[in-house]
Design goal:
By secondary structure, the protein is of the alpha+beta class. The chain folds into 2 domains: about 110 residues, Phosphorylase Kinase, domain 1 (2-Layer Sandwich); about 240 residues, Aminoglycoside 3'-phosphotransferase, Chain: A, domain 2, CATH 3.90.1200. About 45% of the residues lie in helices and about 15% in strands. Helix 7 packs across helix 9 and helix 9 packs antiparallel against helix 10. The longest helix has 27 residues. The chain binds 2-acetamido-2-deoxy-1-O-phosphono-alpha-D-glucopyranose and magnesium ion (MG). Magnesium ion binds next to loops.
């Protein structure tokens, strides 16, 4: 076992004796490990939180504790229906070591995660999960720390974008006229949408902000949704973004970084299934303006993802982990294909929402 990881894990309030620490999954931002213990003691998830992406890890952990405690007080099975933060032995919610921040939560057994939705039932369950997550937090009234500035605020993203293009630190702008054009040609409509949030026409709530399918835990025996995980970006925003980011993920017939663009389309069946699940929890509480813009949210977040992947490529790949040199460009193109597919099918998406919202 890696001594460094073992020493860090030992600084948390764990039950039992650690028997192994193994890497888990492939998040784009944090490094995640499963800590297995001997016998009946619980297992744990140990994460190195990316301190470049999250400048205020203590603030982030305060958010996660507050939100999970709020949820625990309301659900039937508090140890399975949300994450359980495990504090360090000194009482803090993290351990700082060599400039890195680490945190631990309980590993929830008999669960499964997916990278892709292969059947509508999964999308339906995912929609129920986020709809319920938002409903459970609808009366949460403590202030939350802004863990990443302007996370889904496209006005702020365009400020970063303009600065990155002007700086051109990796000398890549000259090769990207076409891709940059994809972003520029949609600047106006995306800012117009965001103005509605800024003006309060579209309300804000406590939201998850990173609702892709791999961030949802499903119960293995029943296949039902259990809870949203990866709570790092829980903040105040519009609920539409949680819907939109999920649509970006569940409806994609290809991979987020598919090299074969023919694989990538938006599936209307998955869209319908996710929307049905989501609205089964949210239909009665959403405002008219939210319902009106719900389908557009898929386009908004997919556009934002095109911008963010391309911006990171222009910036020299500093934000997202990459597996090969032009990975962020491949991601950009695949997400752009998805965006075009949504734009083409937008009338159908809107009709589905209208039908389901009744
Ligand atoms: C990141 O952390 P992870 O892998 O769940 C990113 C999301 C992107 C997503 C793209 C904090 O999510 O915003 O949509 O990658 N998270 C952060 O897959 O930037
Ligand atoms: Mg994340």
């Amino acid at each position: 076992m890696n001594d460094k990881l073992f020493n860090i894990a030992q600084q948390f309030e764990l039950e039992g004796t650690i028997s192994s620490i193994e890497p888990l999954g492939e998040g784009f931002i944090n490094d995640t490990y499963v800590v297995t213990t001997e016998g009946d003691a619980p297992n744990y998830i140990l994460q190195r939180k990316n301190h470049v992406v999250f400048p205020d890890v203590p603030g982030m952990m305060d958010n996660i504790l507050a939100v999970t405690e709020h949820i625990k007080a309301k659900v039937a099975d508090p140890m399975r229906e949300t994450l359980t933060v495990i504090p360090a032995k000194d009482g803090k919610l993290y351990v700082e070591s060599e400039g890195n921040f680490w945190a631990v939560c309980l590993f929830i057994p008999d669960t499964v995660t997916y990278d892709r939705a292969d059947k509508p039932e999964l999308a339906y369950q995912g929609g129920v999960g986020i709809g319920r997550f938002q409903a459970l937090l609808s009366d949460f009234d403590k202030p939350l720390n802004e863990t990443i500035k302007g996370f889904h605020n496209i006005r702020w993203r365009f400020e970063q974008w303009d600065a990155t293009i002007a700086a051109d630190p990796a000398g890549r702008v000259k090769e990207l006229a076409e891709e940059i054009g994809w972003v520029e040609s949609r600047r106006r409509e995306m800012l117009d949408f965001w103005s509605l949030v800024e003006e309060g026409v579209i309300p804000t709530h406590v939201t998850h902000n990173d609702t892709k399918i791999s961030n949802i835990l499903f119960d293995k025996p029943t296949g039902k949704v259990l809870c949203a995980i990866d709570l790092d970006t829980v903040m105040s925003s519009t609920s539409l973004n949680d819907f939109g980011d999920a649509i970006r993920s569940y409806t994609n017939t290809g991979a987020e970084d598919d090299k074969c663009l023919e694989n990538v389309e938006m599936s209307l069946d998955m869209f319908r299934a996710y929307a049905e699940g989501y609205l089964s929890e949210q239909r009665d509480t959403m405002s008219q303006s939210e319902l009106e813009w719900l389908a557009f949210a898929g386009r908004y977040i997919t556009f934002e993802q095109v911008l963010r992947f391309l911006m990171d490529y222009i910036d020299g790949d500093k934000y997202y982990k990459i597996a090969y040199p032009d990975h962020n460009l491949v991601r950009t193109r695949a997400q752009y294909k998805l965006l075009q597919s949504m734009e083409r099918q937008y009338p159908e998406m809107q009709a589905i929402i209208q039908e389901l919202a009744k």
